[in-house]
Amino acid sequence: MTDAAQHPAHHADQDRPQDPAATPEAGVDAEGAVSPQPLAERVENRSQRPSSDAFRAFMGADWAPSSDELPAQDASAPHAARRRAAVSARYPGERIVVPAGRLKVRSNDTDYRFRAHSAFAHLTGLGVDHEPDAVLVLEPTDPGAGDGGSDHAATLYFRPLAGRDTEQFYADARAGEFWIGPRPTLAGLAARTGLRTAGLEELESAVTKNVSADGTAVRLLREADQDMDALLAGVRAEAGVDAEAAASADAQVAEFLSELRLVKDEWEVERMRASVAATISGFEDVVRALPRAVGHARGERVVEGAFFARARLEGNDLGYDTIAASGNNATILHWIRNTGTVREGDLLLLDAGVEDDSLYTADITRTLPVSGSFTDVQRRIYQAVLDSADAAYAIVRPGIRFREIHAEAMRVLVERLADWGLLPVSAEVALSEDGQHHRRWMPHGTSHHLGLDVHDCAQAKRALYLDGVLEPGMVFTIEPGLYFKEEDLAVPEEYRGIGVRIEDDILVTEDGAENLSAALPRTPDEIEAWMARLQA
Ligand code: GLY
Ligand code: MN
Ligand code: MN
């Protein structure tokens, strides 16, 4: 029984507009005039914060001091330093500004958990929780006088932990240790990253000093932090910097930072192996949860929840919203509502990835028979997709072009579609630029780069992405699928309502490729045996 039911008068008080004369902060006074209190401040109206000197003195006293023990250096630090050296080499004499981003409002006064911009994470090596409002600035130095003999000195500006005798400690619900737990000190984050660190009060002058139309060139990674965008736009305008030229300079740095992530170093690959391992555990959890999902009004949510629990247990979060798509929902490519039921006899397409604490993510799809075994037609469609994935994987090695992977996957799928008599044209015509009839059932790309972002390196030039040549250390997906919608009258009835995708995470090695997600069963027989084992 709720409190409101026991105290109806109290409940009614909360819902009913109150007598404005009795509540001077209510927003509208007795004459109907709007209160001068700004809307943004009214979030404070629900609580009282004592402000007497005596209260402040009491709250600021008698706390044990924070530990001054310095943390060890992060394993990512030397790798991040090498990445910064590459940025330095590309932009000698220019200031490069890379914000982490700000807390994002979910609604009203509720924020999402903080997740730094991927370029910031890449250049600092910092993962989960670090550090809203922080900005990395690479300041040009005399040639060779910068970090590690480079041409830049890098400083990480952020809001350091405030002492327990400060007002921030107990009064700042977004940053105070009393409210959100300890955060790093300047010395602590310097020890972890190997970076120079400074407080946010020094940031504005560090970003804006000497900006002139013909003086210090600044490049900003835009759209990570709207305050930085506005600050630099204002300073540039004042200095007479051409706005179009500045936009183009900024866009180029976004492109460069995206391309810098195309090849992963050994530390990144190690973190991606961890993400993949956690994701595989999540898929196992889902198989164990399937009997509970079957028949539940929102069975797909049971699936989504089982995976999410693993993502939070072993990693930071999901790398993207889980697609838990059963039956015909598997033919809806971006089905993230996950409101459907899960029925015996249907296939469940699960596309999910755990984001590691380092923020690197996996991106894996398996299509599972809910009842534990594939029907003949499900197996036929599944095998075609598997053949396509295997054929694409077989050609991966350094030196081929990224686009060849998709072409090979489509060659096999089109062959199967032609064998089944589904194409209105020959396989050759379908594969031609003007054909593409198979896209009715396989409308998406076969591969995308993977890393800090699920669709990593998205700002890279086409020449380095789709038309790019594979190099050892690249990580991308291979994810062909076939999707026959239940309303698709161009296919035989037995195909309708079946969607299959198989997605693996592939590392290019010196002489070929490694399927990082190969430990998750892929063939129909393996999947059936694996499900039986997990559900025994
Ligand atoms: N789950 C997003 C993708 O596979 O690209
Ligand atoms: Mn993918
Ligand atoms: Mn995926």
UniProtKB/TrEMBL annotation:
<dbReference type="InterPro" id="IPR007865">
    <property type="entry name" value="Aminopep_P_N"/>
</dbReference>
<dbReference type="InterPro" id="IPR036005">
    <property type="entry name" value="Creatinase/aminopeptidase-like"/>
</dbReference>
<comment type="similarity">
    <text>Belongs to the peptidase M24B family.</text>
</comment>
<keyword id="KW-0378">Hydrolase</keyword>
<dbReference type="GO" id="GO:0070006">
    <property type="term" value="F:metalloaminopeptidase activity"/>
</dbReference>
<keyword id="KW-0031">Aminopeptidase</keyword>
<dbReference type="InterPro" id="IPR000994">
    <property type="entry name" value="Pept_M24"/>
</dbReference>
<dbReference type="GO" id="GO:0030145">
    <property type="term" value="F:manganese ion binding"/>
</dbReference>
<dbReference type="GO" id="GO:0005829">
    <property type="term" value="C:cytosol"/>
</dbReference>
<dbReference type="Pfam" id="PF05195">
    <property type="entry name" value="AMP_N"/>
</dbReference>
<keyword id="KW-0479">Metal-binding</keyword>
<dbReference type="InterPro" id="IPR029149">
    <property type="entry name" value="Creatin/AminoP/Spt16_N"/>
</dbReference>
<dbReference type="InterPro" id="IPR001131">
    <property type="entry name" value="Peptidase_M24B_aminopep-P_CS"/>
</dbReference>
<keyword id="KW-0464">Manganese</keyword>
<feature type="domain" description="Aminopeptidase P N-terminal">
    <location>
        <begin position="74"/>
        <end position="227"/>
    </location>
</feature>
<dbReference type="InterPro" id="IPR052433">
    <property type="entry name" value="X-Pro_dipept-like"/>
</dbReference>
<protein>
    <recommendedName>
        <fullName>Xaa-Pro aminopeptidase</fullName>
        <ecNumber>3.4.11.9</ecNumber>
    </recommendedName>
</protein>
<dbReference type="Pfam" id="PF00557">
    <property type="entry name" value="Peptidase_M24"/>
</dbReference>
<feature type="region of interest" description="Disordered">
    <location>
        <begin position="1"/>
        <end position="86"/>
    </location>
</feature>
<dbReference type="GO" id="GO:0006508">
    <property type="term" value="P:proteolysis"/>
</dbReference>
<keyword id="KW-0645">Protease</keyword>
